[in-house]
Write a structure and sequence with these properties.
Layout: E1 3-6, H1 18-26, E2 29-32, H2 35-45, E3 51-53, H3 59-71, E4 76-79, H4 92-100, E5 105-108, H5 113-121, E6 128-133, H6 138-148, E7 154-159, H7 164-175, E8 179-184, E9 192-197, H8 198-204, E10 213-217, H9 222-225, H10 229-241, H11 246-257, H12 259-271
Parallel strand pairs: 1-4, 1-5, 2-3, 2-4, 6-7
Antiparallel strand pairs: 7-10, 8-9, 8-10
Helix pairs in contact: 3-4, 6-7, 7-8, 7-11, 10-12, 11-12
Length: 272
Amino acid sequence: MPLFLVATPIGNLGDITERAREVLAACDAIVAEDTRHTGKLLHHLGVHKPLLSLPAFDEGSRAPALVARLRDGQSLALCTDAGTPAISDPGALLVREAVEAGIAIIPIPGPCAAAAAVSASGFAEGRFHFAGFLPRAEGERAALLHELKGLRAQLVFYEAPTRLRETLHDLQSALGDRPAMVARELTKLHEELARGTLSQLQSHFADEVRGECAIVVSGASAQVAVADPQALENEVRARLSRGERPKEIAEALAMEHGKREVYQLALKLRDA
């Protein structure tokens, strides 16, 4: 039997689709990121089904048992707390193992914070790149932002309210002070779409922030997208010849080229 991936409301319960309701009512059991959260949704829908837990921290150990149920002929519907399973939520590992086992995967589309935020951004780029939650480790975060810097597409991130201002600062440092939008509490009573440059948004959210956030940053300009590696090397060589240290050079050129890349290049050229 199939594994249904059921998108659920990101706030307003009225956003549940009729098809999602039908699937939840018809399946043998429902796999939930948090059974308490999904239980409230099912109560609202008047659906009564067994609930199986699939928390993010234990997906690897629980997925095989769920695949075994599917092989035995049960139909399962996977729901996460909000939005679409396996997109910055548990489910990707379960889906992969189900695919490898020959189980049919049926997506039931619906609410998605990233798509909602992009649709309201007003930025000119017709494309967007979804990056989800940035890595916590400083080096990994810097490397990813450097990779994204030259994309001429809107960049979309998710962030917790307690880390919003720090992330806006990191985005400004790595990408420049670009136009951006923070979509907070999407579809809920206190929904907010805050627009401005990344520095302006840091000021706007200087105080306590509540509610999950989606950040949309405008894409790279043509100049950033076609940055000349040889020009960067020439600049670093010139600064080294003036006695500047690799760390100083990296800090000076971080906004245009990425701090980590400049630092490694300066070390390489200094020691050559």
